[in-house]
C-alpha cells in the first residue's frame, strides 16, 4: 500500500496534492550565462505533477557559481529566465521551490576570474570537478572567509531569494548539503575557524542560521526550506559527530516555522552512490524537528510510504526516477513500469536525455 504518498499535505502556505517531491538535480542546461532557457522551462513544466518541484542548485552570486551550465539567480537576465520556468510549472498546476547555493570551496578558481574559492577554512575539497571545457580538474585550496565576506554572502542569499520570488517561484530551499558553502561551515572536517563561526556546534551552525533568518525575514519563513546531507562524504566532507551537530541544527530550525527540512540520507540496506559507513542520523533529526520533514535517497514508493507511515517523514523526494519519468507520480500511483534514465546525458547540454523522455 502506497496510498499515503498521494494524500495532500500543507507545506508553508501551499497544499501539495501528493507527497512525491522532485529532488534538486543539477542538469547543466543553462549555458555559460546561467540563464534558464525555454528548454529548461519545458523540462520543469513536464514534471509539474510532482507534489513540489525543487529546482537544481542555483547560484546566489558569481563567486559561488562554478558548475558548467548551472543556472544563477543574481542578475536580471537570470531572473527573467526563471520567470519562464515558474510560468511553465504554474500553467500546469504545479508548485516550485528554487534550491539556492554558494559552491564555496567547490568552485574552480579558473571559473571565477582566477580568484580563490571561498570557504570557512583553507581546506581543499577532494576529488575533481569539470572545468568550463568539461575536463575533470582538481580543486584549489580555498580562502578562509573574512567576517565581511560572510556578511556579504548572507546578503547575497537574501537578494537571490527575493529575485526567485520576484520571478514567480514559490519559495527557496537553502542548500546546506553536499559539502557546499553552508555545509562546509557546519561540519568540523572543513570548519577549522577559531572565531564565532567555528569550534562549537553552536558556532558552526551560526552561518546557516544567519542565512535562514535573513532570508525568512525577507520572503517569509513559510517560503523557506533547508537541505542537509548529514552523513554523506561528498568531495571528502566529514564531521566528527553528525548526530549531535545535525540534531542541534534541526532543533534550531524547528522553532522557525519553515516550509520544510529536507534530508538526503539513503536509509535502505541497498547500495547508493551517496551512502557512507557513517550510521544514519535521520531518526535523531526527526526527534528534533517538528515541522514537515522530507526524506530522500534511494527511496521506492513502498519504502517512502513506510517512512510516512512510521512518522519518519511527511513527504519523500525522488531524484533519478524523475529524470526519465516526467509523470512519475501517476506511474507510482498506477504501478506502471518506470523508464530507465541514461546517465551519460545527466549533465550534457541540449534536449537529449532532458526533455525527450515521454510520459506514458
Ligand atoms: C544528476 C544529478 C544532479 C544532482 N544535483 C543536485 C543538486 O543540484 N542539489 C542537490 O542538493 N542534490 C543534487 N543531487 C542529489 C539528488 O537531489 C538526490 O539527493 C540523489 O539523487 C538521491 O536521490 P535518489 O536516490 O532518489 O536519486 C543530484 C543528483 C543527480 C543524480
From TrEMBL:
Top-level taxonomic group: Bacteria
Keyword Transmembrane among record annotations: no
Cofactor: FMN
Domain named NADH:flavin oxidoreductase/NADH oxidase N-terminal: residues: 4-337
A GO CC term assigned to this protein in UniProt: cytosol
UniProt cross-references to Pfam families, sorted A to Z: Oxidored_FMN
This protein's UniProt keywords: Oxidoreductase
GO molecular function: FMN binding; oxidoreductase activity, acting on the CH-CH group of donors, NAD or NADP as acceptor
Coiled coil ranges: none
InterPro entries: Aldolase_TIM, OxRdtase_FMN_N, Oye-like
PANTHER family documented for this protein: NADH OXIDOREDUCTASE-RELATED (PTHR22893), NADPH DEHYDROGENASE 2-RELATED (PTHR22893:SF91)
Entry similarity comment: Belongs to the NADH:flavin oxidoreductase/NADH oxidase family.
Name of protein: N-ethylmaleimide reductase
Organism from which the protein derives: Cognatishimia maritima
Origin organism lineage: Bacteria, Pseudomonadati, Pseudomonadota, Alphaproteobacteria, Rhodobacterales
Amino acid at each position: 500500500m502506497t496510498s499515503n504518498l498521494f494524500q495532500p499535505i500543507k507545506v508553508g502556505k501551499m497544499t501539495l496534492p501528493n507527497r512525491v517531491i522532485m529532488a534538486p538535480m543539477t542538469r547543466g542546461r543553462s549555458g555559460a550565462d546561467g540563464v534558464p532557457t525555454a528548454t529548461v522551462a519545458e523540462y520543469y513544466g513536464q514534471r509539474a505533477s510532482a507534489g513540489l518541484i525543487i529546482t537544481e542548485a542555483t547560484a546566489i552570486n558569481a563567486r559561488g557559481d562554478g558548475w558548467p551550465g548551472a543556472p544563477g539567480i543574481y542578475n536580471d537576465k537570470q531572473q527573467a529566465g526563471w520567470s519562464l520556468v515558474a510560468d511553465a510549472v504554474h500553467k500546469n498546476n504545479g508548485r516550485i521551490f528554487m534550491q539556492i547555493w554558494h559552491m564555496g570551496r567547490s568552485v574552480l578558481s579558473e571559473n571565477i576570474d582566477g580568484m580563490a574559492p571561498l570557504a570557512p577554512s583553507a581546506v581543499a575539497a577532494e576529488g575533481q570537478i569539470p572545468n568550463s571545457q568539461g575536463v575533470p580538474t582538481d580543486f584549489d585550496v580555498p580562502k578562509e572567509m573574512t567576517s565581511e565576506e560572510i556578511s556579504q554572502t548572507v546578503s547575497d542569499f537574501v537578494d537571490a531569494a527575493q529575485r526567485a520570488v520576484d520571478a514567480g517561484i514559490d519559495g527557496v530551499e537553502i542548500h546546506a548539503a553536499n559539502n557546499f558553502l553552508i555545509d562546509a561551515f557546519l561540519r568540523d572536517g572543513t570548519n577549522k575557524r577559531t572565531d564565532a563561526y567555528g569550534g562549537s556546534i553552536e558556532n558552526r551552525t551560526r552561518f546557516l542560521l544567519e542565512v535562514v533568518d535573513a532570508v525568512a525575514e525577507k520572503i517569509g519563513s513559510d517560503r523557506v526550506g533547508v537541505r542537509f546531507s548529514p552523513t554523506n562524504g561528498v568531495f571528502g566532507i566529514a564531521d566528527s559527530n553528525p548526530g549531535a551537530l545535525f540534531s542541534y541544527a534541526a532543533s534550531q530550525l524547528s522553532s522557525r516555522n519553515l516550509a520544510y527540512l529536507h534530508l538526503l540520507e539513503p536509509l535502505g540496506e541497498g547500495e547508493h552512490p551517496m551512502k557512507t559507513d557513517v550510521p544514519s542520523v535521520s531518526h535523531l533529526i526527526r526527534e528534533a524537528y517538528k515541522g514537515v520533514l522530507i526524506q530522500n535517497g534511494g527511496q521506492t514508493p513502498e519504502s517512502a510510504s513506510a517512512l510516512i507511515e512510521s512518522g519518519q517523514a511527511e513527504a519523500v523526494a525522488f531524484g533519478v526516477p524523475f529524470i526519465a519519468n516526467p509523470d512519475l507520480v501517476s506511474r507510482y500511483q498506477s504501478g506502471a513500469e518506470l523508464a530507465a534514465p541514461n546517465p551519460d546525458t545527466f549533465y550534457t547540454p541540449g534536449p537529449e536525455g532532458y526533455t525527450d523522455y515521454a510520459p506514458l
